[in-house]
Specification:
Elements (H helix, E strand, L loop, with lengths): L2 H5 L6 H14 L1 H33 L4 H50 L2 H51 L1 H5 L5 H38 L1 H6 L3 H53 L5 H41 L16 E8 L8 E8 L4 E5 L6 H8 L7 E6 L2 E2 L5 H7 E4 L10 H6 L7 H10 L25 H15 L3 E5 L7 H14 L4 E5 L3 H5 L3 E6 L2 E6 L1 H7 L2 H18 L1
Parallel strand pairs: 3-8, 3-9, 6-7, 7-8
Antiparallel strand pairs: 1-2, 1-4, 4-5, 9-10
Helix pairs in contact: 2-10, 3-4, 3-5, 3-10, 4-5, 5-7, 5-10, 7-9, 7-10, 9-10, 14-15, 18-19
Length: 587
């Protein structure tokens, strides 16, 4: 099993999907019942047309006068009008049911995502999670709004048409059963093969989205390490995988759909041939043959809608299985409360999944109110330390505690008030600047919002067309990477936690802006613990202490002056960094 497959969120079983659908129907049982009644009446009005037309054919042969024929024809027009009205009402009510149910699924999906453990979210990746909460939810919503109600109407129409045929002539009606064997065989084979095919296609889309998102958000890293060809190869491989999955689905449809066209001609042909012979022999009336043939022809419309909708049903079932799978993740039992803000890591070992350990007996203590910088080469485990302190991950061995309590056991509400982790990835919601800031503290007034923006150097807000009411995000007012990071830092100031962890949070800012933002945070959070994971040694120089992490261990710990004097790893890094700055100034 690949790493992607092992970290992917679970998928609900067919039984769980059926239960979820049943819960939606039960919640809207009155609406569902009324929709069925309206479509039943519409189908009855529609089936009355061929039945009454058959009576007209027989009536003309029996010597009906013009007045009687005209009266029946007028009734036919009434049936047409009634059918159109009832169908319109049924569809309108069905769409309302679909809209309410779709909204309920979206809300439920969001609630479940917000309850997911952070380690589950991180390991699943943005691709799998985002496709479940966007594309998959949209697919289910489309089925509930339109295809689902239309199929319900089609099923009712089929039942009414068959019942009407038995009312006209039971023997001729039996010939309608000719259509059933090929349809049932084709539908059974299609459904059996389609579920795994659609699940695989949705999963392939998740993997492709994850890879493209990672390449886009990490474009600077990709360019810095010259990984363009490697990332392009990954994207092409995953795109090819999805292409193969889609071709399998198209292959299934290519033999299934033509089978339907052949099946629909069988009952009409059987009724015309057998009924014609019976009418010539006196075993059936001409009107009954006409009525049953027209009813058999009417079956093609609703059966078409049902059979063609099987593809959408399979796709929606696969999507709903993925959406419901989010709820299958058990929430963590985290009820501990912190009793302070001192951070301690003792003999910590940690690795991701089945991979080897990244941290090897790491020891580190951060005193309350201290400013600590964590530096070291890429891959040394610096960001892992941040995740452990923030309670996102749990160590394999040793302890990681905040206020004497294991960070991974602290209740989420208490943890959010105690620790804030700010990484390179920041999200801007499609909402006003005020709402984006108020996420950190919903009782903050405008003066407080403007103050934190100024303190992190985000003076760009003064040029926004509507100030704090300017809508940000995709499709609205876009923010540059540096502006997005300043927005994230402003949220930190509003949240005012006991411990702030900056994991390369200012990497998108220039040196001067980054220094100003970090200095503003340090001043604003005086008395709070500030842990900075950074490659910028300027930020390390301003810290109270510096921890050098190498190969999963803290190899050096002390102030900037002490570490430079020790002539160790940090001193070498400082010499290289400061020498480069001097050369840039000279140039």
């Amino acid at each position: 099993m690949s790493a992607v497959e092992s970290s992917r969120l679970p998928v609900a079983t067919p039984r769980e999907v059926r239960r979820a659908v049943l819960e939606l129907l039960v919640r809207e049982k009155r609406t569902v019942a009324l929709v069925c009644v309206l479509h039943l009446a519409a189908a009855a009005a529609g089936a009355a047309l061929p039945v009454m037309l058959g009576r007209v054919v027989d009536g003309i042969g029996d010597g009906w006068d013009t007045a009687r024929v005209d009266a029946v024809c007028l009734a036919l027009f009434g049936c047409v009008a009634a059918q159109m009205t009832l169908v319109r009402l049924g569809r309108r009510l069905g769409h309302r049911f679909g809209d309410r149910s779709s909204a309920r699924i979206r809300e439920q999906a969001l609630e479940r995502v917000l309850r997911l453990p952070m380690r589950t979210v991180e390991r699943a990746g943005t691709g799998d999670l985002s496709t479940r909460t966007t594309g998959d939810v949209d697919t289910v919503a489309g089925l509930l709004r339109s295809t689902g109600p239309e199929v319900v109407a089609a099923v009712i129409e089929v039942l009414v048409v068959v019942a009407a045929a038995f009312f006209v002539d039971p023997l001729l009606a039996l010939l309608l059963a000719v259509v059933l064997p090929p349809l049932l065989l084709a539908a059974r084979a299609y459904v059996r093969r389609a579920r795994p095919a659609f699940l695989a296609e949705r999963a392939a889309l998740s993997d492709l989205t994850e890879a493209l998102t990672a390449s886009a958000t990490g474009a600077r890293t990709v360019a810095a390490h010259r990984l363009e060809e490697r990332r392009a190869a990954v994207g092409h491989r995953l795109a090819e995988e999805r292409y193969v999955r889609q071709r399998r689905i198209i292959g299934l449809e290519s033999w299934f759909l033509p089978t339907l066209d052949l099946a629909y001609t069988l009952p009409v042909s059987a009724i015309l041939c057998a009924g014609g012979l019976a009418a010539l022999g006196g075993g059936a009336s001409a009107g009954a043959v006409v009525a049953c043939a027209m009813l058999a022809y009417r079956l093609s419309g609703p059966l078409d809608r049902i059979m063609y909708a099987l593809t959408e049903f399979q796709e929606a079932a696969a999507a709903l299985a993925r959406v419901e799978g989010v709820g299958a993740v058990e929430p963590e039992a985290r009820t501990a409360r912190t009793a302070g803000s001192d951070v301690a890591l003792r003999r910590v070992t940690f690795g991701y999944g089945a991979a080897p350990d990244i941290l090897h007996g790491l020891d580190l203590r951060v005193r309350p109110g201290e400013r600590l910088a964590v530096v070291g080469p890429s891959g040394a485990g610096k960001s892992t330390v941040a995740w452990l302190i923030a309670g996102i991950e749990r160590p394999r061995g040793g302890t990681v505690s905040i206020g004497g309590v294991p960070s991974a056991d602290v209740a989420p509400e208490d943890l959010r008030r105690t620790v804030v982790l700010v990484t390179q990835e920041h999200h801007v919601f499609a909402a006003s600047l005020r709402d984006n800031l108020a996420l950190a503290r919903d009782d903050a007034d405008d003066e407080a919002l403007l103050d934190v923006l100024r303190r992190v150097g985000a003076t760009w807000f003064e040029d926004l067309p509507d100030g704090l009411d300017t809508v940000l995000g995709e499709g609205h007012h876009p923010l540059a990477l540096a502006q997005t990071q300043q927005l994230a830092l402003a949220r930190v100031l509003l949240a005012d936690p006991d411990v702030v962890i900056l994991d390369e949070a200012t990497v998108g800012l220039d040196t001067r802006s980054a220094g100003a933002a970090e200095a503003a945070l340090a001043t604003a959070l005086a008395g709070r613990t500030l842990i900075t994971i950074t490659h910028r040694l300027q930020a390390a120089q301003a810290a109270d202490r510096i921890a050098v992490v190498e190969k999963g261990r803290v190899t050096e710990l002390g102030s900037h002056t002490e570490l430079v004097a020790s002539r160790g790893t940090y001193a070498a890094l400082w010499e290289t960094w400061s020498g480069g700055r001097v050369r840039r100034r000279q140039e």
